[in-house]
Amino acid sequence: MTRLEAIDGTNWEAFLQGDWSVLVLGKTDCDHCAAYSEELEAFQASPERPPAVRVGKMLLDRGGLASFKRANPWLSEVDVLPYTLIYRSGKKVGEFAGGGAERLRARLTRLAADSASPQRS
């Protein structure tokens, strides 16, 4: 897959249930969001992208996101866009403000390694 998936009020829940899902939050008038989207398009086509990872983009200034906003009350505290969320099987396992495809790649690599290592008690 080489394109960012468009995520909205109709498909966000199913999208987040994937094995590995990256949800990028942005707005239509955000220049940093547009630049990060371009970076992510290139990342999607690169061999560094883990193959099992889906990457989607949600534009917060579009309508129809009431259920997402209700389910994520922390969203009202986000003051830097783009904002990247990493989910594994529906559970949020990572997040960061700002962009950076290399930053995302490094975070995904670390999270995958952490989940593959045996848990210690």
Instruction: Give the fraction of residues assigned to helices.
Output: 25-40%
**CATH homologous superfamily?**
Glutaredoxin
Distance between the termini: 38 Å
Largest sheet: 5 strands, mixed
Mind telling me the CATH class? Alpha Beta
Level-2 CATH architecture: 3-Layer(aba) Sandwich
Strand content: 15-25%
Structural class: alpha/beta
Main sheet: strand order: 1-3-2-4-5
How would the global form be characterised? globular
- The count of DSSP E runs of length 2 or more, i.e. the number of strands, is 5
Tell me what the structure shows.
The protein has one domain (about 5-115): Glutaredoxin, CATH 3.40.30. It has about 120 residues and is α/β, with parallel strands linked by helices. The protein is about 35% helix and about 25% strand. The protein has helices at about 10-15, 30-45, 65-70, 100-115; strands spanning about 5, 20-25, 55-60, 85-90, 90-95. It is built from four helices and five strands; from the N terminus they run E-H-E-H-E-H-E-E-H. Strand 2 (about 20-25), helix 2 (about 30-45) and strand 3 (about 55-60) form a beta-alpha-beta unit. The longest helix is centred in the C-terminal third of the chain and has 16 residues, at about 100-115. The mean pLDDT is about 90.
